[in-house]
Target: VWA domain-containing protein
Amino acid sequence: MFEDFLYLLRKNGLKVSLTEWMALVEAMDKGLHSSSFTGFYHLCRCLLVKSEADFDTFDRCFLEYFKDVPFQQEVSQELLDWLNRPEVLSDYASWDEEQALKNLGFSEEEIERMLKERMEEQTEEHNGGRYWVGTHGMSTFGNSGLSPKGIRVGGQSMYRRAFRVAGERKFRDFRRDNTLDTRQFQVALRKLRQFSGLVDLPPTEFDVDNTIKDTADNGGVLKVRYKRPRENTVKVLLLMDSGGSMDYYSQLCSALFQAVSKSGHFKDLKVYYFHNCVYSRLYQDPMLMSRNSVQTDWVLSNIPSDYKLILVGDAQMAPHELLGGYYGGSREDGPKCGMDWLRLLKGRFGHTVWLNPSERPGWGQYWCQTYDAISQEFPMFPLTVDGLEEAMKKLLVR
Model:
């Protein structure tokens, strides 16, 4: 049954064994798929996919093989065609403060219920309104509008206010070139174990492989071998941008903090926060409270230079914040702008990388200017599985 589906999975790199395939057949025979197409999808993924990183490959194979099977989408293709037309301009957009305040009062559960009701009622295209699913308006559903909270339907993310995207594929983010989520951080950080250094101590750890090899070479007479212990000696200083445009990535950055702090891959970890760029103060919590801050000079003077420095931020701000003396040092001869502080950090800590959750801006020369200036100073890596792995390799190069 569905043998071609098995071959398609294998063709696309999923190592599905005959035992796993027979387990699927047995599970279907017992009705574990609940006699539904959705249940069959979840059953297949549960039994045939071994890693979260393969979820997207499985999704693409599943959609390709069962493309002709009818199933009900959350959002109709007709509506998506309405909402994805680039020629619809923003002439309709106007700020409606009263409607914005009203939208903020809706809970996410209420918005979900309202979307379902609108989908049942709506029969034609709407743009610039405040009620129907459309574009460039104040409705909580649609895209390219001005509502402070809602569900994006179609289109591209612009203002990053939606709390979810209707019809979005849930497991697409497990691709290695996509932005990380909580589970992917764990998958990526597990790979750091291989980068742990050999401590410069006498060989005291039992070496199983070489003991077996030398014993065999010695005619079966036991010859015990020892090796130097492997211990993680990496110490990390993590500086994270908080607030402003980084609010969109707050959940992602929280996942990064949790994964890094609990991974056990670093001997020591120190975390501070900043807003847009590092200036004369660093903060000990993402709320950036002055009472929980330290002088950046203190960090430069008291944290040893053998710490690996990781900066996390979108590198997007007004140019005068980075280059024009927005915040300076407390001394007249001290740093005069954000870039001065960044260069001091770079000079202090020889191993430094910048992780960026955002791509280079495709619009606005100001945002591109600061992004490019920082990327020229620091090795910058995207906050993806591959990007994180490459950044760690860069940090640990001796």
